[in-house]
Amino acid sequence: MSLTESLKQSLPPSTRRRLGHTARRLSSYFYRNDLNQLARVFHTDKWEMHWYTQHYQRYFQPLRNKKLKLLEIGVGGYEYSDHGGESLRMWKAYFRNSQIVGIDLCDKTQFREHRIDIRQCDQTDSEALLRLSNEYGGFDIIIDDGSHLSEHVITTFHTLFPLLNSNGIYAVEDTQTSYWPTWGGGRANPHSSMEFFKGLSDGLNHVEYPVENYTPTYFDRNIVEIAFFHNLILIRKGNNDEKTNMPGLIQREIKAANAELSVKRAS
Q1: Which residue, 24, 46, 126, 217, is the most exposed by fewest CB within 10 angstroms?
Q2: Which residue of the set 114, 148, 158, 206 is catalytic?
Q3: Burial category of 221 from C-beta neighbours within 10 Å (exposed 0-12, middle 13-18, buried 19 and up)
Q4: How far is the CA of 228 from the CAs of 143, 198, 260, in angstroms?
């Protein structure tokens, strides 16, 4: 047995964990601008098991030094009290001036530390999420790494996206579950989370609909970007108020649709 292994075994588990956290914090300084490497340092599954941090890097790099408030749904470790918090620590190392908040159905509050707040909360509890958002004055980044059940993903989005700060980014991870029937999904299942978000992408172009007196939804008016990656969706909030550059053609399409409808009714 090596000296290092002997020392590890002689230390109580809590001390080993504390020393491990300290070592990771020190090494994270050298990789503070590289999310892929930080994921390795903090042993999160957002790189190598999944491939999310490469996309987060591209979207979050311009925000790295800002004072933000980031909410992650799902602290990790399931019901095991001594597991979890890896990605929260990664976000803390990357966003060095930001407040990181995590929620989990299980009690993970023991992983709180400076700039990391953790609450026990059900992601479908809209009242609790509203209180948390009000407490922090809204969030700039929200990451849903929670239950991954389609019903929960959609319910949480309906609650939290309207509370997201302007120009904020909402991420949904592990969307492969939207294709799995036992998770409330299925390919082309209208109730799956993927079909829900695919439907929202049409709203980016709602001013082009040849529909007379169409009333845009909240999501039509407040989503300016949706990016789909393998098992990951990123949605940017903003004012989707660009005007169509072909109003005459849209009016012509509306007249054509109305004429076709009149013919069908008469036949």
Answers
A1: 217
A2: 148
A3: middle
A4: 14, 9, 36
pLDDT at residue 11, as a whole number: 60
Q: What is the DSSP string of 49-73?
A: TSB-HHHHHHHHGGGTTS--EEEEE
Which residues lie across from 143 on neighbouring strands?
Answer: 72, 171
Orientation of helix 13-28 relative to helix 86-94, angle to 10°: 30
Q: Is the pLDDT of residue 118 over 60?
A: yes
Query: Is 238 or 247 the better-scoring residue by pLDDT?
Result: 238
Those residues whose C-beta lies under 8 Å from the C-beta of residue 247, and which sit 6 or more positions away, are none
Instruction: Please give the span between the terminal C-alpha atoms of the chain, in angstroms, as a whole number.
Output: 89
Q: Is the dihedral of CA 147, 151, 152, 153 positive or negative?
A: positive
Tell me the C-alpha distance between 241 and 236, whole Å: 14
Q: Which positions ≥6 away from 127 have C-beta within 8 Å?
A: none
Q: Please report the pLDDT score of residue 69 as a whole number.
A: 98
* Among the listed residues 91, 85, 131, 86, the one whose alpha carbon sits nearest the alpha carbon of residue 112: 85
Encoded amino acid at 225, one letter: E
Q: Is 191 a residue of the active site?
A: no
* Residues 235, 175: Cα–Cα separation, whole Å: 14
111 φψ region: left (φ > 0), alpha (ψ -120 to 50), beta (else): alpha
Is the CB of residue 74 less than 8 Å from the CB of residue 104? yes
Whole-number Cα distances in Å, 229 to 142, 167, 173, 179: 17, 20, 10, 15
CB 35 within 8 A of CB 57: yes
**Residue 157 vs residues 81, 122, 131: alpha-carbon distances, Å:** 27, 13, 16
- pLDDT exceeds 80 at position 81: no
